Amino acid sequence: MVLKVYNTLTRKKEDFVPAEPPKVRMYVCGPTVYNYIHIGNGRCYVAFDIIYRYLKYRGYEVTYVRNLTDVDDKIINRANEEGTSPNEVARKYADAFAEDMAALGNLAPDIEPKATEHINEMIATISALIEKGIAYEVDGDVFFEVAKFPAYGKLSGCSLDDMRAGERVSIDERKESPLDFALWKSAKEGEPSWESPWGKGRPGWHIECSAMSSKYLGASFDIHGGGQDLIFPHHENEIAQTEGLDASRPFAKYWLHNGFVNMGDEKMAKSLGNVVLVRDVLKEHDPNAIRLFFAQTHYRSPITFSEDNLKAAAAALEKIENTLENLGHLLAGVGPGEASEESRKLSSAFVAKFEEAMDDDFNTALALGHLFDFTREVNTKAATGGAASVDLKGFKEAINSALSVFGIDLSAKKSEELPPEIIAFAKEILGKDFTEREAALGEVIEARDAARAAKDWALADMIRGRLEEMGFILKDTPSGLLATYKAK
Ligand code: AMP
Ligand code: ZN
Predict the structure, then answer these.
(1) Residue with CA nearest ligand 1 atom 8
(2) What atom of ligand 1 comes closest to residue 28's alpha carbon?
(3) Which of 134, 231, 278, 387 could form a disulfide with 334 if both were Cys (CB 3.0 to 4.6 A apart)?
């Protein structure tokens, strides 16, 4: 199967053919660090984290670059409000962003460049644009002259003529056209600034991404991503700046954009004041459930945020957790018997369907649907089949491998949730030390099954009784004792 991706630039799904396989170069616009991120921003970075993970799962060697915009009007305004410096604001919220990304379970990008550390690269790009005659300087400000780049509008699908028809009188009379945008802004009193050929100033937002992506990924790379609100003007301007210098190659080949998180009928946005912060949601909800909530919808479609939707995702997650837990306990109780062909096929059929869904423009919603179907089948097989002939290990691996593409990790959590007394009890009856609660439980169950096999009913009942006292719910199955534990 070929991986297909929807390209905003061509408005269709295309076969994904990176320039230099197995390498994939991917750039995603990072946040402007002036505030804590909201769950809409969170969705964007989780969506691209899943894309990053799936590309790696497919065997690609991905270089993932995500920048930090640490100089901007919003940062300066925030510093004035908080009575501190723009540097302090940027540092504080960049740290908070890193914490939120880790807490959400996102992998760190390979490179995370900061705008303020790439001013020289931006100045060089702006100088080249002026030299080419497509940018001009007025009183220490530099503007990109949109009329000199005829392809302007190709990403957002607006022609220059349409945009001109909608033009109003320019607020800044010094610009040749209201569509022209700032590449360099001259410094105002008390603002962060750098020396440049046009005097002291700071870069515009769009030029940052052109300069930093080219520096780390080369003049042409495979994937450029961000939220749908970045298509215009940010990404349109990035294309103009970069292809304006050299139109012989595309700046980025595939443009991917995630849909919005909405609150009711409105986009969640700082400017609308309807934001819910990632860190606040994480106080109440498991990050795995938040990721599942995102993955239940295709990344390009809108999602409505609500407590109820998050709770529904948590309940769905619990079903998968229970299946995995049951498999773990069954596995602890059976030897490495030969799994039947039929049972192995169940896992491979699921993996094929999962990959087919993900290959279709990262259709996580469909892939998750297959995962739920598979866990239902697994539950039936595990409860009814003779455990030795059922491919328990294959089931577990297939589920975990799918979950790892979504960045959902249930292994650590489950073990911690078991009662700590299980370690002492395992030592008492087995005379061995355990560090992992799950392993201790597995061996206790094995000991109880062995006691029954040896008709040592007193020991078998004692183990059963003590497990029940610890809060386990126990069920005898054809493959041995099944212990489920629900933390109170
Ligand atoms: P910003 O800091 O506003 O540039 O946002 C960071 C990223 O989050 C950008 O890629 C935005 O497109 C994306 N984003 C902002 N609001 C939302 C939203 N409500 N839903 C999904 N993505 C969003
Ligand atoms: Zn950008």
Answers:
(1) 41
(2) 10
(3) 387
Q: Sheet holding 261-263: strands in order across? A: 266-267, 261-263, 303-304
Type of residue at 449:
D
Is the beta carbon of 230 within 6 A of some atom in ligand 1?
Answer: yes
CA 228, 230, 232, 235 torsion: positive or negative? negative
CA 406 to ligand 2 centroid distance, Å: 24
CA of 34 to the centre of ligand 1 (A): 13
pLDDT classification of 335: cutoffs 50, 70, 90 = low
Nearest residue (CA) to ligand 1, atom 7: 41
Identify the helix (H) or strand (E) that includes residue 161: helix 160-165
- Averaged confidence pLDDT in the chain: 92
CA of 40 to the centre of ligand 1 (A): 6
DSSP string, 313-380: HHHHHHHHHHHHHHHHHHHHHS--PPPPHHHHHHHHHHHHHHHHHHHBT--HHHHHHHHHHHHHHHHH
